[in-house]
Specification:
alpha/beta; Protein-Tyrosine Phosphatase, Chain A; UDP-N-acetylmuramoyl-L-alanine:D-glutamate ligase; 26 strands; Udp-n-acetylmuramoylalanyl-d-glutamate--2,6- Diaminopimelate Ligase, Chain: A, domain 1; eleven-stranded mixed β-sheet; 17 helices
């Protein structure tokens, strides 16, 4: 792949240039370690490091052009230097042009909100493949180019990786792409330059305040996604969430609403439910699905609404909906031979934990006990730790507090932060076991036939991150080992 620098620069606002702009660029990089000869290096002031400090390294490795915000004091001979006002925003636009403007060749649908993004994006991807289309998926669990899995590191990749991925999707004939859009991605301009055919809002609860600092900043990052949707796109929003209409108040897109409680364009209610699935009424039509929980009804309704907005017939969408299966690590049930039900779920925010536990309690109806195993991630929002413990205790009969991904923190200190939210009476229900495998094993051994063990926090993840190293760890595997299945 090759493109002239002067063509690339038409996509950004240039402050000044030194050197030749009529030269071929063979790649774009933000990481100096990945630079190849002939590349354009974009220096971005990141949260961990400032790319401007690595301009020299990039040039040493063969970068023939540099885009930056701060003008470098030393300039290498034969290298073109371009100053822009905001290089973080520019990198997405440059990558979009370099990779052939992929979102002009396929329809990109973005899903944003605190909980439900992975489920909705993945179910839409699965549904439109059922309809016979080649599709792409960008999600927390894995990226897909039709049926080819492409491993993922972040909910939304960096703009260069993202455009390269979307470019491959377009080249391989994908008509649709479905993408989780995180608040970080919006705030860090990772989606700059992309054209979205539609956007979906799920809900908004406390998360990522370690990065955004305030709930308002977090909310505004999500809202900025809808503010940027073009005329002709659709915006599907959840009016059961108090921020649902705030999200779309300044959008140019066509707004459609969905709800389980209020008047809306798309409505659903639960007719029957068990640990095997639910029977739903969706806009006056009945459909059976192998999903559990009211939060999943909301997710399925968002999928239904988006598919209809994308031009599919309502009947076809309902038939496809009935064939879909839960996403890996989202309310997955594992049954022991003795009649104990274990549930693996990614719930790692207080709201997600409440949703899952409320569903378990609604279905169980006190016919058994609920034993919850949960923790909290290290180097993330500490404020939610005591709240997680409180919600677990409030909605469970017994709770085991354990490690999640401690990252660079001490696991016991994270557990202590969680326990600090509990009073003496609440502590009677709780034990803490630092070793996650031992915690899951203990919960499963404590359970009697008819009880439910909820293992929350990691869901689809098959690792534990400790001191910067990812060690293999899978909640499913531990449960099955204890159950002997």
């Amino acid at each position: 792949m090759m493109m002239e620098l002067d063509i690339l620069l038409k996509s950004v606002s240039v402050v000044r240039v030194t050197g030749d702009t009529v030269r071929n660029i063979t790649g774009i990089n933000m990481d100096s370690r990945l630079v190849q000869p002939g590349d354009l290096f974009v220096a971005v002031k990141g949260t961990q490091a400032d790319g401007h400090a690595y301009i020299g390294k990039a040039v040493e490795k063969g970068a023939v052009a540099v885009v930056c915000e701060a003008w470098p004091e030393v300039q290498a001979e034969g290298v073109t230097y371009v100053q822009v006002k905001d290089s973080e925003s520019a990198v997405g636009r440059l990558a979009t042009v370099f990779y052939g403007d992929p979102t002009s060749k396929l329809q990109l649908i973005g899903v944003t909100g605190t909980n439900g993004k992975t489920t909705i994006a993945t179910l839409l991807y699965n549904m439109f493949r059922v309809f016979g289309y080649k599709c792409g998926l960008c999600s927390t669990v894995c990226n897909y180019i039709d049926d080819e899995a492409v491993p993922t590191e972040h909910t939304t990749p960096d703009p260069i990786t993202l455009n390269r991925l979307l470019g491959r999707m377009a080249d391989e004939g994908c008509k649709y792409a479905f993408m989780e859009v995180s608040s970080h991605a919006v705030a860090q301009h990772r989606i700059a330059g992309l054209k979205f055919a539609g956007g979906i809002f799920t809900n908004l609860t406390r998360d990522h305040l370690d990065y955004h600092k305030t709930f308002e900043n977090y909310r505004d990052a999500k809202k900025a996604f809808f503010d940027g949707l073009p005329k002709g796109a659709f915006a599907v929003t959840n009016v059961d969430d108090r921020n649902g209409m705030i999200m779309v108040q300044n959008t140019k897109a066509v707004v459609k609403t969905y709800s389980l409680r209020a008047a809306a364009d798309f409505k659903a209610k639960v007719l029957e439910e068990s640990f095997e699935g639910m029977c739903l009424d969706v806009n006056g039509k009945e459909v059976s699905v192998p999903f559990i929980g009211r939060f999943n009804v909301s997710n399925l309704l968002a999928v239904y609404a988006a598919a209809v907005c994308m031009g599919r017939g309502a009947e076809d969408v309902l038939v496809a909906l009935s064939t879909l299966r839960p996403v890996n690590g989202r309310f997955e049930t594992i049954r022991s031979k003795e009649g104990v039900t274990a549930i693996v779920d990614y719930a790692h925010t207080p709201d997600a934990l409440v949703n899952v536990l409320s569903t378990v309690n609604e279905i169980l109806k006190r016919r058994g006990e609920v034993i919850t195993v949960c923790g909290a991630g290290g180097n993330r929002d500490k404020g939610k730790r005591p709240i997680m413990a409180q919600e677990a205790v409030k909605n469970s009969d017994r709770v085991i507090i354990t490690s999640d991904n401690p990252r660079f923190e001490e696991p016991q200190e994270i557990i202590n932060d969680m326990l600090a939210g509990l009073d003496k009476e609440e502590m009677r229900k709780v034990i803490s076991i630092v070793d996650r495998k031992e915690a899951i094993r203990t919960a499963c051994m404590m359970a009697r036939p008819g009880d439910v063990v909820l293992v929350a926090g990691k869901g689809h993840e098959d690792y534990q991150e400790v001191k910067g190293v990812k060690h293999h760890f899978d909640d499913h595997e531990v449960i099955k080992e204890v159950f002997g299945i």
